Amino acid sequence: MRRLTSILAAVLFLTAAYVFAWPSANVPYFGAVILHVVAGVVFLVALFFAMRKIWPAATPGQRLGWVLLALGGLLGAVLIYTGTRRGEWPLLYTHIAACVAGGAMLASAWAGKRGFFSGSYIGGIFRTVIFLLAAAIVTAGAWWVRTVPWERSHHIANPAIAPASMDGEGDGPSGPFFPSSAQT
Question: Is the overall model pTM greater than 0.90, yes or no?
């Protein structure tokens, strides 16, 4: 179960990164959403059964990481149930923040076991701060990829002055949407 939860956590982070950074109405996107939802439900069930073995051997940082992932998973279950409408986006962002922070905590503990700043208590805190900052930077970069290029390519510019008649709207009287100013 521990191995399964680790594999599922990796699948969840990869699909979440894709879904967050590149939202578009295409088959790979919807496939990633479905894989994320299914893996998330299986992860919650597997984590429930694996926690008895994980918890006693875990360090405080690992425990916090697993608690944050469990909280994020529970929030994800709520989002699945509600459908994640626009009014529930604060809950979605809380789900993302809890999972990113939990993943960073677990990655920090994993790196500490492999000798990365593992010499002292201060080294462990420094390592955890590095991983949390790296996770925040990656998340901010994913937000930039999803937001800024899209806004630049989908800019709406109104004319400086309104046309004198409907004939000046859009493509004019010969346009397919006349008298609307819509254009394709």
Answer: no
